[in-house]
Amino acid sequence: MEIWLETQGSSITMFNFTALPPLSLYIHVPWCVRKCPYCDFNSHKSPDTLPEAAYIDALIRDLEQELPSVWGRTIQTIFIGGGTPSLFSAEAYDRLFSSLRALLPFSPQIEITLEANPGTFEAHRFADYLDLGINRLSIGIQSFNDQALTSLGRIHDSKQAIKAIETAHKVGFDNFNLDLMFGLPHQTEKSARHDVETAISLEPSHISYYQLTLEPNTLFYQQPPTLPDEDPIIDWQIANQQRLAIAGYEQYEVSAYAKNTQQCRHNVNYWQFGDYIGIGAGAHGKISDAATQSITRRSKQKQPQTYIDSAGSKAVLLTEEKISRQDIGFEFMLNALRLTDGFPTSLFYQHAGIPISHIDAALRQAEADGLLTRDIYRIRPTEKGQLYLNSLIELFLPQ
Fold this sequence. Notes:
Layout: E1 3-6, E2 12-15, E3 23-29, E4 31-32, E5 44-45, H1 52-66, E6 75-82, H2 90-103, E7 106-116, H3 123-131, E8 136-142, H4 146-151, H5 158-171, E9 176-182, H6 189-201, E10 206-211, H7 219-222, H8 230-246, E11 249-253, E12 256-259, H9 265-271, E13 275-280, E14 284-289, E15 294-300, H10 304-310, E16 317-322, H11 325-336, E17 343-344, H12 345-352, H13 360-368, E18 372-374, E19 378-381, H14 383-387, H15 389-394
Parallel strand pairs: 3-6, 3-13, 4-5, 6-7, 7-8, 8-9, 9-10
Antiparallel strand pairs: 1-2, 10-12, 11-12, 14-15, 15-16, 17-19, 18-19
């Protein structure tokens, strides 16, 4: 069935979903011990006493309000991000997960990730998180160089970072990610390589390896630190990517490397334009609706107290808008082209709800420019396309 819908402004949207995309759940915990100068996420300095109980109550109310849009759908992955989710106790998450399981059907193979920072963990918490069913950690290391960590405003040192990783292994996490950055203030080729070698030696299943960027609305953007020149940074990146490959870490996305095919399923769902509920202060969500044949994006109030006070009411919504047919091609490709192996051609129709012919002109131009390859089965960026990803994605902007 095809249904025509009026959207914001004068544009008209038509989608035709034959099946809905996989569904994930994102939970945002907005507090940190200290705001890092490079961070542009919705994070706030934690008060002396965290309002754990009030925030968990708000998360549950928020989810209950989201339920009518996802009735009957199974949650495939959960990601608890921040902020610093490891500031919350296992007891708080126990209460949250009791409600989640009562409200939503979980896949038997569900992936549940929690972000943790070495400066905020206690060994028993990792074990308790695992007992709750959290089966994947994402540990924010950023560097194993103490000078670099100080310049980044991190509250941990290299010894704490290594101890946190060793503890994750010891308590039984066989699937965890290390966040690692390069192009740091005063970083050298030698120290960048040392970070990668140290990470490999600690045997995580997954490494996120990405360049420090100066994002607007951050202290680093207002007061830029001294960074290495861009040309050597590119050389470091290529060399260290090759080192990760030799160590068995396969690059499957712009900044994601997995060993033994242990990709982050939650992020893959984002990149394949899947659906996700977003709960928590500043959380974003995207939901496809078969009844109305529409795709809606929502975001929640950013300030923690405003979120707590408004959760469960319409006032919790900061934004709500439907994606138009005109924008859907760009929105899909913005995500899917980050994957080094691209995506099955059929996925576009399944998750975007329109024929691939809708973006044929842009595909032909990208192919002519040597930025992607395609056949009837798969569309994937070339090495050149990965190197000039922004230029590739811009071809799909609405005309």
